[in-house]
Hints:
Helix 1 crosses helix 4. The protein has 193 residues and is mostly helical. The protein is built from nine helices and no strands. The protein is 75% helix and 0% strand. It has a single domain (52-191), classed as Tetracycline Repressor, domain 2 (Orthogonal Bundle). The chain is elongated. The N and C termini lie far apart (51 Å). The mean pLDDT is 88. This is TetR/AcrR family transcriptional regulator. Keywords: DNA-binding.
Amino acid sequence: MHTKEKLMKSAFQIFAKKGPEFSLSEVAKEVGIKKASIYAHFKSKDDLLHSVIEREIEEYFFKMNGEIQKLSDNEEIVEKALEKSFSIILDYYDSSDKIYFWKRVFLLPPEGFEVELMDKINYLTNQRFYIIKNIILKGMKDGIIKSAPVDSVVLAFFSAIHGMLSSVAIYNEEDLLSNYKGIWEIYWRGIRN
C-alpha cells in the first residue's frame, strides 16, 4: 500500500473514532512516518480529510446509487429490487468505522467544512431517496405495495437501515447482517398488499 493510501486510511479511521479533532501527528504516527512527510501528499489536514470524504462519496453514493438505479431500470420484481437495494446499502458498512465516519459527517460535519462537499452529499442522499421512491411508486402502481403516503414508506425503508446501523453503534453488535433478513421481512410485511 502506498503512503498516500495509508495516510487516507489512517485519517479515515481516526476521524471515525475522534471526529475532526484528530491531528496530523496522530496520522503520521499511525502510518509510521514523520508529520512533515504528510505534506508531500496533502497540503493540510483539511485537504487530507477532503480527499478521504471524496473517496467515500465515490463508493457510498456514486457506485451504490448506480447499482440501485440499475435495479430500478431493469424492471425487476419490486420486492427483489427493494430487498437488494436494502442489502447493497448495508453491505457497504463492513466495519463500525464506516458507521461512525458517516454519522460524524452527517451529524457533526467538521467546522468550516466546505459547503460544496456537504451540498454534494445532500444532493446524492436525495438522489438515492428518489431512486427508492420510484421503486416503491412502481410497487404501489402495480398493487404490490399498499397505498400510503409514498414519502413515509421511503422514510421507513431508510429508517430501518439507519436504525440497524445505530443499533450496531449503540449495542456494539458485531454482525450487522445477522438481523438483516428479519428486519427486512418486518418492513416488507408492513408495506406489501
